[in-house]
Each structure stands twice: as structure tokens, then as C-alpha cells.
Amino acid sequence: MFKEFRMKNTIKVLGIIALIAVIGFSFAACYNVADDDNGGGGGSSGGGGGDSGGLTVTGIGNYGVNVYASGSNISTFVAASSATLVATGGTNNGYKLWVYNNGLTSTRWTGTGSFPVLLTDTTNYTYYYATVNFTNGNGSANFSSFTTQPTY
């Protein structure tokens, strides 16, 4: 009986150690693209290198930002969820935008033209959209030009 009890405890301890190891390796493997200043290859979605790829929106704090393919309808939450996302990042004095290609990449976004932009206020779960002009991945807009997005 004592041997069975000791065996169960040993298995529990080994399971906890394995779980801690998995978590530790997961943290070690995480790659923070926000700290990367390296460029990357180009592409039709506006990928590129250097220090480009920022959006400045005056009149707000730190929001999340998604940039969608030119001409996409993002006027409602449902419409935006089916639109093609080309770049993502944050806004606060020109946060960098990163190419989104079926997942976040480490390539700076360098798109040029008019693109639909969705701002995300995750504190209040409120979304705002507007079309913003970008040149080599850099754009700016005033928060007053954004419209509140309905959640339907």
C-alpha cells in the first residue's frame, strides 16, 4: 500500500515538473515582434523592411489597430470579421504595423494607398473604423474621422 501511494505521488510530481518545463520552454520560444527592428521581404500585401509601418491617430490613447485590404467593408463587426486583414499593430504616436499573412509575421508593413482601419478599445470593447491614407506603411488620422462600429 505504501509503495502504491509513493508511486502515485511520484507520478504527480513528475507531471508537475513536465508541465513547468513545457511552460518554461513556451516562454523561451516566444518571439516579440514589437522589439524587432529588422526588415523582411516584400510582397503584394505591402511587406518590407526598415523603420516604416506606423500609424498615428491624434486624440486617443493606446488602441489596437488592424489594417484591411483596400476596398474592404468593415462597417460592422460581422463585415470586418470576414474582411482580409493585411497588417496589425497598435496606435500611440506611430506604433509599428506588421504584415498579417494568416498569422502575425516579423515583417514591417509598407503598404501605400487608402486602407480601411479598425481601432480596437479592448478596455471598453468598442471599435472604430475609417479609411486612412498610407505611404510606405505610414499613415495618420484624427480620431474624430473614425466612426463607431456596430457590433452586429
Oligomer: single chain
Shape: elongated
Q: Would you list the SSEs in sequence order as H and E?
A: HEEEHEEEEEEE
Number of domains: 2
Trace the largest sheet across and list its strands: 2-5-4-3-7-8-9
The percentage helix is 10-25%
Note the gap between the termini.
61 Å
Largest sheet: 7 strands, mixed, barrel
Q: Which fold does the CATH topology of the largest domain refer to?
A: Immunoglobulin-like
Q: How many beta-strand elements?
A: 10
The count of helical stretches stands at: 2
Record keyword descriptors for this entry.
seven-stranded mixed β-barrel; 2 domains; Immunoglobulin-like; single chain; 152 residues; alpha+beta; 10 strands; 2 helices
Write a short abstract of this structure.
This protein has 152 residues and is an alpha+beta fold.
Structural summary, described in words:
The protein is an alpha+beta fold. It has 2 domains: 2-30; 47-148, Immunoglobulin-like (Sandwich). It is 22% helix and 38% strand. It contains 2 helices and 10 strands; from the N terminus they run H-E-E-E-H-E-E-E-E-E-E-E. Strand 8 (126-135) and strand 9 (138-142) form a beta hairpin. The radius of gyration is 21 Å and the shape is elongated. Mean pLDDT is 74; it is low at 25-50.
Secondary structure elements and pairings:
Elements: H1 2-29, E1 47-48, E2 54-58, E3 63-68, H2 77-82, E4 85-91, E5 95-100, E6 104-109, E7 113-121, E8 126-135, E9 138-142, E10 147-148
Parallel strand pairs: 2-9
Antiparallel strand pairs: 1-6, 2-5, 3-4, 3-7, 4-5, 5-6, 7-8, 8-9, 8-10
